[in-house]
């Protein structure tokens, strides 16, 4: 294959990857909001509580890694 075609596929895959991360992050945040609403109405089940906790940790870890990867050079 031509190197130009391979690079175009790589750029396309990177764009798809970034879009998928954005979609997953958006739906994770919306799910957290839903769990907060449900928690006001009733007690969360064990599975819902674990999912709520795992989502909060995952979003925090993603945000921390994003900031370190993109802005880590500015740290003292």
Strand runs, count: 0
Spans of at least 5 consecutive residues whose pLDDT stays below 50 are none
Q: The biggest beta sheet, please?
A: none
What structural class do you assign from the helix and strand content? mainly alpha
Q: Number of helical segments?
A: 2
Q: In total, how many domains does the architecture comprise? A: 1
Order of helices and strands: HH
Radius of gyration: 18 Å
Query: Given the C-alpha coordinates, what overall shape results?
Result: elongated
Mean pLDDT: 89
As a percent range, the share of strand residues is: under 5%
Alpha-carbon distance between the two ends: 45 Å
Overall helicity: over 70%
Keywords: Membrane, Transmembrane, Transmembrane helix
Transmembrane segments: 16-35, 47-69
Describe the protein.
With 76 residues, the chain is an all-alpha fold. The chain has one domain (3-70). It contains 2 helices and no strands. The mean pLDDT is 89. The chain crosses the membrane at residues 16-35, 47-69. Keywords: Membrane, Transmembrane, Transmembrane helix.
Which helices and strands occur, and which strands form pairs?
Layout lengths: L2 H39 L4 H26 L5
Keywords: Membrane, Transmembrane, Transmembrane helix
């Amino acid at each position: 294959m031509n190197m130009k075609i391979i690079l175009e596929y790589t750029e396309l895959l990177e764009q798809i990857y970034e879009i998928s991360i954005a979609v997953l992050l958006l739906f994770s945040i919306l799910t957290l909001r839903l769990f907060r609403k449900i928690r006001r109405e009733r007690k969360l089940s064990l599975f819902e509580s674990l999912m709520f906790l795992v989502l909060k940790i995952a979003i925090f870890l993603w945000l921390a890694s994003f900031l370190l990867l993109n802005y880590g050079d500015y740290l003292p």
